[in-house]
Amino acid sequence: MNVRRLSTLAAIAGGLLLSLDSLATAQNKTFETFGTIERKDPRFDALIPKDAKLAKIGAGFDWAEGPAWDKKNGYLLFSDIPPNSVMKWKEGEGVTLFLKPSGYTGTKPRGGEPGSNGLKFDSEGRLVLCQHGDRRIARLKADNKSFETLADRFEGKRFNSPNDAVYKSNGDLYFTDPPYGLEGLNDDPAKELKFNGVYRLSKDGKVTLLTKEMTFPNGIGFSPDEKTLYVAQSDPDAPIWKAFDVAEDGTLGASRVFADSTEWLKAGRKGLPDGLKVDQKGNVFATGPGGVHEFAADGTHLGTIDTGEATANCGFGEDGSTLFICADMYLGRIKTTTKGLGF
Fold first, then answer.
1. Which of 187, 138, 189 shows the shortest CA–CA distance to 162?
2. CA 201 from chain center: how many Å?
3. Taking the CB of the first residue and of the last residue of the chain, which one, N or C, has fewer CB atoms within 10 A?
4. Mind listing the pLDDT tens digit for each residue in 283-316?
5. Which tens digits make up the pLDDT trace of 194-232?
6. Cβ–Cβ < 8 Å for 160, 196
7. 19-335 is classed CATH 2.120.10.30
8. Is 198 in contact with 220 (CB distance < 8 Å)?
């Protein structure tokens, strides 16, 4: 529609601009919605609009994980782990297969969770994958079919199954290595490391063990000033999130329990602490029992996007204010009034 004359700025504002709340409604009007939103603290209203709805934009997955927004091409990639696939979602096109195999390139049939998990784009826009089956951090080559190994061992021993990762602003990649990609988990005879660690892959290719104090390290993310590293622990006996002090040299110092989901788990809410993301204001969006929990930087629980399903991960995309949520068999989308780090 062409508008030739506008008499006042008020007319512009009234006629052409949509509020964030209205935009969220318009964005999701063609999709079925699901879940509920729980508001625990007034600060939550500054993150999630009061009339926001969680839209179901994809369904039928085995276990959706690792959402990552491709800024260059304008679409979302996410892992479907058991089928060993990376899927693509794009506005107006829906979900299509992007990559298969995604995490296991072997020829011997296997069960469990062989595919990729966490996905990241590096500073050059290349896709980096945490590959369960191949037990490595790998980068997708330009042919979009084959991979380059970035790291697959610590002190000569194979990783368990790299799970999730986050880039530091200097280009170092921090990642977790629980046993979920091993068919026998901690008891798998192929497990070479006696612990489940958190590592740093430096730009020069050096792998450093940062901590092995967490039983099942999972989701990972930095605070905006990169002085704190958050790590989820998906252990039903200790379902917590920890916050680590980050030293000047990039190693980890003292840790503290940032949040504890034991009571939610005891109440029968689905899921465990899993993937997480941090917004530009320092709020932590962490999946766990009951959905995606929002925490202030001081650890205060602000509210929850309750998906009703075991929720694996979340990630910001589009202009940075849309939160995509991987909830078991569903891919969801909700508009926020904040923006994720990196946007």
1. 138
2. 19
3. N
4. 999 999 999 999 999 999 999 999 999 999 999 9
5. 999 999 999 999 999 999 999 999 999 999 999 999 999
6. yes
7. yes
8. yes
